[in-house]
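PROTEIN DESIGN WORKSHEET
SECTION A - STRUCTURE
LENGTH: 313
TOKENS:
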């Protein structure tokens, strides 16, 4: 196993400075605004860097990696509802109707509520520069816009017996041709434990690079959980349900031996068909070592105390 070098670990001052940066950004509002997960280890080179990306507010993520170009972020996508081919998603999703849009939050809550997109945008939007580490062993560094999921969950007041959160993507095969495929149990479903969902790093994203999300990135609202493999970050959410039992995700149902519920990034646990020790940084033409919890261990490791991380979670 490769050793983690000191430069791979987020120094506390960097983390703290990100915190204060984020606090400063707090006022930034969005103005307008055999089955295998993700197809198996990705063999293709990433798209070329964009010439004119929208201007980001930060240049690197917490581990010092540069932002991935806007062009790559919006043209190299996993969104199986549209296509299994990353390069085709943007084109096939172009006319996807994202307005009007509602997200129903229900289940074991005292105050169930249906949020319109305007309600979601009324939460103060922050910029968060996170690495998205796909289970296929590639990654991107993306400046998201969004707000902590915890804020929305607090509004609906989870009951004490709620232990998990279940998320569901829109089901509309007419708009999402991939949902006509019988190989997957649509709609796309994902889940988090309630404490993971309430963690400060877990956000609902409504934009990236300062603009509203494009359909291919999960418009109008998606989850982003930066210490887990990208398939947990479910797109185009229409329903969030607080439940007592661990939800079964689309990937758990489709390939239970390959994709588990927790899916925490872990370089020491290989996928059954490939190593997770390194990742290809899209647009940078290089591989870097993968870090435990995708570099966010300082913030999230306590959530898993006592759990055996050597298993494929
Ligand atoms: N959400 C839905 N509904 N459908 C999907 O196919 N793919 C997941 C995740 N969310 C997926 C999804 C995977 S495998 C990854 S790596 C990320 O979205 C990719 O997000 P991006 O295309 O915005 O980079």
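SECTION B - SEQUENCE
RESIDUE ASSIGNMENT:
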């Amino acid at each position: 196993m490769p050793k983690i070098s000191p430069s791979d670990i987020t120094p506390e001052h960097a983390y703290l400075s990100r915190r204060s940066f984020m606090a400063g950004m707090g006022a930034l509002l969005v103005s307008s605004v055999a089955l295998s997960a993700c197809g198996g280890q990705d063999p293709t080179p990433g798209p070329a860097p964009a010439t004119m990306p929208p201007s980001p507010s930060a240049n690197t993520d917490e581990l010092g990696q540069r932002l991935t170009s806007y062009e790559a972020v919006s043209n190299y996508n996993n969104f199986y509802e549209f296509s299994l081919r990353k390069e085709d998603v943007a084109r096939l999703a172009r006319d996807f109707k994202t307005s009007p849009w509602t997200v129903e939050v229900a289940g074991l809550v005292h105050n169930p509520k249906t949020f319109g997109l305007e309600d979601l945008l009324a939460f103060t939007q922050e910029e968060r520069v996170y690495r998205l580490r796909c289970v296929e062993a590639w990654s991107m560094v993306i400046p998201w816009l969004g707000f902590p999921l915890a804020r929305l969950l607090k509004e609906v007041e989870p009951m004490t017996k709620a232990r998990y959160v279940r998320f569901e993507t829109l089901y509309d095969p007419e708009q999402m041709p991939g949902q006509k495929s019988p190989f997957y149990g649509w709609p796309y479903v994902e889940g988090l434990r309630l404490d993971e969902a309430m963690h400060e790093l877990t956000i609902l994203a409504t934009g990236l690079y300062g603009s509203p999300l494009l359909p291919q990135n999960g418009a109008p609202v998606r989850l982003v959980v930066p210490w887990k493999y990208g398939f947990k970050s479910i797109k185009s959410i229409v329903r969030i349900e607080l439940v007592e039992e661990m939800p079964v995700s689309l990937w758990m149902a489709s390939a239970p031996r390959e994709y588990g519920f927790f899916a925490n990034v872990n370089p020491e646990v290989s996928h059954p068909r490939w190593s997770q020790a390194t990742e290809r940084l899209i647009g940078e033409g290089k591989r870097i070592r993968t870090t435990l919890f995708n570099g966010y261990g300082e913030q999230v490791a306590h959530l898993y105390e006592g759990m055996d991380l050597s298993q494929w979670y």
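SECTION C - NOTES
Residues 1-35, 43-53 have pLDDT under 50 and may be disordered.
The chain has eight helices and twelve strands.
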